[in-house]
């Protein structure tokens, strides 16, 4: 019957192992795209994604393939590969019955792959292992096969040898998907229950939500309800995703498709939400829905105060297609008017900052990111604080709580020692340590989120040579001895440089902060005192010595065009400077904390 000829699958792969190249091979092989239409990496079509080499937003595409005289529909659901987006990955996996595990035959399994693999196994997905890049002379298939067998317990002959470059293995992969991945289960006659696993924003069509129908049927013009947001819509257009949108009159249990229903902003469509009919709704929503909440906050300010309204317009536009971005107006004594923004993580923050600069040509200053805190005041009230400079003075504070995460770190046995040290250094508590194989262990730590938003992930990667993966969820708030550390430039406090820090770390941190700022702030016409303070107590100081600089001195003779060029260059350089009191502070100084070692 109908459902028996549907296969829904995703791809689990480490960055650069060839996910996009192999997916393209399958698309060409199934004639989903013609050779002529073939662009490099059809699946990651955002410029930014290509440059960063990660798939930021998941997409889906349907291929038709004939096998033993029967035509099958293969739905490939693409997944992002970064911990900031792990909730989206989990929803995509939930929409599938199988997963291709693609491993670079010259590299072997990387830890990053493992946590997504576990997620897939947890959801009972059929795993199809593929060794890619078999065309390369330095491929070590036996070694990598041993790793795969060790990890998922498959047979050696189950591992497909492939090459995205030559096309080797593409047909076998398609056949294996049809043979091994079970067709979707579900009842087409039950009330409609569809899982939203992604959404995209299109400036002409509004928000397009991608879903998989678990049970029931959906027709064009049906009146539907999104269960968790409790909003009703008309299904103006439904269809399947090929290279573009292919409208259909009806979709049924097992199908992966899209719906356009006049939704104008991404906020209304929540990944993980359930679509059902207003009449005859399903008794239960799809399980596992979570509201994604920002984890990290930072201020974003225009370098030029006149650009404030443009910045607001740009943020509004970004939010239309990125529901996980939040922002509200904020004023800083040092930086003027801007916005306090909430992000899923540091990568998300960097992406937003880059998009503001590239797509909207905005020149912005981003302040040091921080987490949110609970301030319990002496009068018994509680205040949620999103900005260190908004922390009430210690005289009115009873105690501060900070968010904690439960982190799972999977690594090779060799790196356990250094990773333990890193976590303990970040005020972590070891909860558990399990050996997954003789070579691979999982460490469970409770860690303050505030300690890991800075450079934890980068440090983890570098001390493990990339051979460690991190997954975490916020487990709750805990009281901590935190103090507010302020920075003063020539005696004036710069609110945008305030941080909350554990009392025991305040002195060394203040000292390093002053040293770093001394490196970053250029000499000016007068001495600049850089001080770190906790409350009214100065705990560190550095001085940037005065220097009289004459930029035109470098122009020998009187070549006026050279002189002008030099002055213009200096003016451009200045654009990235912010006047704080009488001191000019370069943009990157506001992120000094991130650059400290
Ligand atoms: P992300 O989208 O960044 O996660 O990477 P990906 O896993 O999609 O990898 P991608 O397909 O972009 O391939 C990474 C690099 O490996 C590219 O330079 C490809 O040209 C190359 N590549 C992919 N498959 C093969 C292969 O089978 N053989 C060889 N020689 N190179 C390959």
SSE layout and pairing:
Layout: E1 6-13, H1 19-29, H2 47-52, E2 60-67, E3 70-77, H3 86-94, E4 98-104, H4 111-122, E5 126-132, H5 141-152, E6 160-161, H6 170-180, E7 193-202, E8 206-215, E9 217-219, E10 223-226, E11 231-234, E12 237-241, E13 245-248, E14 250-252, E15 256-260, E16 274-277, E17 296-302, H7 308-321, E18 326-332, E19 336-343, H8 346-359, E20 364-366, E21 373-377, E22 382-385, E23 397-412, H9 416-425, E24 429-435, E25 440-448, H10 449-452, H11 456-463, E26 468-480, E27 482-489, E28 492-493, E29 499-502, H12 506-520, E30 528-534, E31 537-544, H13 560-575, E32 577-580, E33 583-586
Parallel strand pairs: 1-3, 1-4, 4-5, 5-6
Antiparallel strand pairs: 2-3, 7-8, 7-16, 8-15, 9-14, 10-11, 10-16, 12-13, 12-15, 17-19, 17-20, 18-19, 21-22, 21-23, 23-25, 23-26, 24-25, 27-28, 27-29, 27-30, 30-31, 32-33
Helix pairs in contact: 1-6
The structure holds guanosine-5'-triphosphate.
Guanosine-5'-triphosphate (GTP) binds at residues 13, 15-21, 41, 44, 53-55, 81, 132-133, 135-136, 163-165.
